[in-house]
Amino acid sequence: MITFKRAIPLLALCVLSGFSQTSLAAYQEKAPGSYTYIGYGVGYGRINGEDFTNANNDLTESRVSWKAILGTKINQALSIEAQYVDFGAADKNTDRIKASGWTAGATMDFMQGSSLTPYGKVGALFWETDNLFSGISLHQKGTDLTLGLGLRFAVTDHLVIRTEYERFAMDNSDVDNLSATLQYNFF
Fold first, then answer.
1. Which of the residue ranges 5-19, 51-65, 122-136 has the most confident prediction, judged by mean pLDDT?
2. Alpha helices in the chain (DSSP H)
3. Is 111 left (phi over 0), alpha (psi -120 to 50) or beta?
4. CATH of the domain at 77
5. Taking residues 133-157, what's their average pLDDT?
6. By the 8 A CB rule, do 153 and 138 touch?
7. How far is the C-alpha of 35 from the C-alpha of 83, rounded, in Å?
8. DSSP letter assigned to residue 52
9. Which residue from 159, 130, 128 is spatially nearest to 143, judged by alpha carbons?
10. For residue 47, which of 87, 84, 79 has the smallest C-alpha distance?
11. Tens digits of per-residue pLDDT, 112-122?
12. pLDDT for 75-104, tens place per residue?
């Protein structure tokens, strides 16, 4: 038996899908090929699958991340995209861990032709961390793999809402990030 609370996301998607049919038709007419887009998003991240709830109160983690994206749609299915991601910081007293990075990669759209477009992404993460423990500072840099899955929803001709899950590798750590991004298309 499906409870009402569990059915709310499904109902919302159905309603939004119905409202977007006219905007989708206009979107497809204006965006048959290549165009450029920008976006800004906020997310929630966690490291190595941890929940970040700490019974010992050792660290107070800031799980909120933000990102800015710039991309070019090459054809109906393929985009090249760059993004800056600030993963937030974790600190207690004078100890601090902070991470950020740039990505360069490609996104591939699946099942085009509807108002909801699923996509996958792969790329490289150029990351850096600034750590401070007991007065000792450690700065690290590296390049690792990033993967993601997402869903685009065309609201208007130019405005798109993206939700995505991304996994960023940073040396021996994995950062999982769930985010929502507002994207603006330039035709």
1. 122-136
2. 4-19, 21-30
3. left
4. 2.40.160.20
5. 92
6. no
7. 17
8. -
9. 128
10. 87
11. 777 899 999 99
12. 989 999 999 999 988 777 777 888 999 999
For tokens 């700065």, name the residue: 139
Its domain, for residue 29, covers 4-186
Q: Rounded to 5 degrees, what are φ and ψ at 183?
A: -115, 135
Given a contact cutoff of 8 angstroms between Cβ atoms, the answer to whether 20 and 155 are in contact is: yes
Summarize pLDDT for 96-113 with one digit per residue, the tens. Answer: 888 999 999 999 999 877
Length of the chain, please?
Answer: 187
Query: Which candidate, 151, 178, 166, places its Cα nearest to that of 20?
Result: 151
Q: Total structural domains in the chain?
A: 1
Look at residue 26 in the predicted model and tell me its pLDDT: 44
For 31, which DSSP code? -
Q: What is the DSSP string of 110-155?
A: -S-SSSEEEEEEEEEEEEEEEEEETTEEEEEEEEEEEEEEEEEEE-
Euclidean distance between CA atoms 22 and 12, whole angstroms: 17
Q: At what angle do helices 4-19 and 21-30 cross, to 10 degrees?
A: 50
Name the percent of the chain in helix, strand, coil, to the closest 5: 15, 65, 25
Cβ proximity of 69 and 85 under 8 Å: no
